[in-house]
Design brief:
The complex is a heterodimer.
Chain A (H helix, E strand, L loop, with lengths): L6 H20 L7 H6 L6 H11 L3 H14 L5 H16 L3 H6 L5 H9 L1 H19 L2 H12 L4 H6 L2 H50 L2 H12 L12 H18 L1 H9 L3 H11 L2 H19 L2 H4 L6 H9 L4 H32 L1 H4 L6 H25 L6 H25 L5 H23 L4 H34 L8
Chain B lengths: L1 H38 L10
């Protein structure tokens, strides 16, 4: 396949990388305490918060799965983005859960749970958050590497026979890890800002170019031809109601408890700033599904089935590799690198923060660690997460839709953590029995689905059940376990102090 | 239904362009303010073990 990637494009990409590394490393001298490293000393203001949240929640992986949704589902594939906008707007306006969370002055969600449910629940919550988060993030690096190779004109068949993908993943990881390990949240915020500008400009230019060069009518015709009315209305899709209901639960849970998102609330200067960040960024989540979704639809409209091949995930990068002219190709790759690096760095720091703050909390209980030791340990953890990403990304064989995989792995903790957070903030009878049941049942369904999907004997049955039913079941089971467990303890156990 | 998606796509492009410009300008000053605040934080030097 011909590509328009030239030395001019390589120069643009190189310049961007240099600027990012300089900016990321320049602020590391401001990191003196663990609070600086994990939540930027809670000094983040509104506009930096918007840039950081938008950049964090849009990576190459986002671009790939939203484009795949556009390709496979048409415009209806952007429905999760609209649902997330609604969820974020509602939570931002009302302050539902995020107000008490920010007011508590904690660095992670499990830290808040300890006050209500005790140290065991804090530790367990930390474990499921990290498990779900790392499994979710495990495919980021590979997807990023694949996108960059495809747009640069490499043949996907060659991935298996060469080390191109491994080399690309390692380069990506080393650059991101370099400034994240050293500068923590401060480096993440400053590079996020730079990356937000570059990524947004590149997304806007490409979308306008699609409108100008291809036009709206061919996109609509392609969706009509391949998907019919279901391409425009999600409820008409196969399992349409399940898809919408699962995504509604998922998006509300993401807005309330996705640690990478919540960390922006916890880093904000005040609760009011945190709420404003949510309100002002809410519509971005429609854009982050619809804009790459249009790129996927453009691939559907212009490429032949032979050009696309078997993997629909590759349709959009293949389309862009031939659609964009020289110069713009460099801007695209710089923009997507920016998007990917901001996501990877923020996620590495996020899960690293939970490991340090919550999973290692029992080790700090007897002897407090110094700030210097704390920062060093955090840096070590972030480095280890980077190594995990490299190996897991190469090893895990992704099956089915990328968005479904991310939804299912995220649900491992999103279902129970959202239930725990709501109960923690608003239900006085909630206790550690309910919390324990909620965590276990919430994780059981998605993990079970992932395992059954990989086993040859049960793969067909898992396919029949589908990711949406198992996801919805997870939210229902988690909520029910919280209610039953808490009420059981209330009636069976005599109150003793301290009571969780 | 396709008009709904057309209007949404056009609104996305316009809104996103304005937001990128506005956040780009104001975010720069936020970074300056954040770094100044951290610099003036008396407790920021790393304490020795």
């Amino acid at each position: 396949m011909l590509t328009h990637f030239t030395f001019l494009d390589a120069g643009i990409v190189g310049l961007y990388l240099l600027l990012t590394i300089i900016a990321g490393l320049a602020v590391r001298k401001y990191v003196g305490k663990v609070e600086h490293y994990l939540v930027a000393g809670r000094e983040m203001n509104l506009y930096l918060g918007i840039a950081s949240l938008a950049a964090t929640e849009f990576g190459i992986v986002t671009c790939m799965y939203t484009a795949q949704n556009g390709f496979k589902m048409g415009f209806a594939g952007s429905t999760p983005g609209i649902l997330q906008t609604i969820a974020m707007l509602v939570v931002g306006i009302t302050g539902f859960c995020i107000k008490p969370l920010r007011d508590a002055g904690v660095m992670t969600i499990p830290e808040l749970f300890e006050k209500r449910f005790g140290p065991t629940i804090r530790w367990l919550a930390g474990v499921v958050i990290v498990l779900g988060g790392l499994l979710n993030m495990g495919v980021f690096l590979r997807t990023g590497g694949e996108f960059l190779l495809l747009t640069a004109g490499f043949d996907p068949q060659a991935f298996a026979q060469s080390y191109h993908l491994e080399i690309m993943m390692t380069i990506l990881l080393v650059i991101v890890a370099l400034y994240t390990v050293l500068g923590g949240m401060l480096s993440v915020l400053v590079t996020d800002f730079l990356q937000f500008i570059i990524m947004s400009l590149s997304m806007l230019v490409i979308t306008v170019l699609i409108f100008v060069k291809i036009g709206w009518t061919p996109l609509v015709e392609a969706v009509q031809k391949h998907h019919g009315a279901a391409g425009f209305n999600p409820f008409l899709m196969e399992r349409g109601w399940e898809f919408v209901l699962f995504n509604l639960c998922l998006q509300f849970a993401v807005v309330l408890t996705w640690q990478a998102v919540i960390q922006r609330i916890l880093s904000a200067k005040s609760t009011k700033t945190g709420k404003q960040i949510y309100m002002h960024t809410s519509f971005f989540f429609t854009a982050r599904f619809l804009i790459p979704g249009l790129w996927g639809i453009a691939a559907l409209a212009t490429l032949t089935p032979e050009q696309i091949g078997e993997n629909t995930l590759y349709a959009m990068p293949k389309f862009l590799s031939t659609f964009l002219p020289t110069g713009l190709m460099g801007i695209l790759i710089a923009g997507m690198l920016a998007a990917d690096m901001s996501t990877d760095s923020a996620y590495m720091l996020t899960w690293g923060g939970v490991i340090y703050n919550d999973i290692l909390a029992p080790f700090r209980r007897n002897k407090q660690w110094s700030e210097k030791k704390g920062v060093l340990i955090n840096r070590f953890i972030v480095g280890c997460i980077g190594m995990f990403l490299l190996f897991y990304g190469l090893w895990y064989p992704l099956k089915g839709n990328l968005w479904d995989y991310l939804g299912v792995t995220g649900t491992i903790y999103l279902s129970s953590m959202s239930v725990l957070l709501i109960a923690c903030c608003y239900w006085k009878d909630a206790n550690n029995w309910g919390a324990m049941g909620s965590i276990i049942l919430g994780a059981l369904f998605p993990i079970g689905f992932l395992v059954l999907q990989q086993l040859p004997a049960t793969a067909e049955w898992a396919q029949h059940v589908g990711p949406y039913k198992s996801g919805i079941a997870s939210y229902l089971a988690s909520g029910t376990a919280m209610i039953i467990g808490s009420l059981l303890k209330k009636f069976l156990v005599k109150k003793k102090e301290p009571s969780y | 239904m396709s008009y709904f998606w057309l209007l949404l796509a056009l609104f996305c492009i316009v809104w996103y362009s304005i937001m990128t410009f506005y956040v780009g300008v104001r975010g720069f000053f936020d970074i300056k303010e954040m770094l100044l605040a951290l610099k003036s934080d008396e407790t920021s030097p790393v304490e020795e073990e």
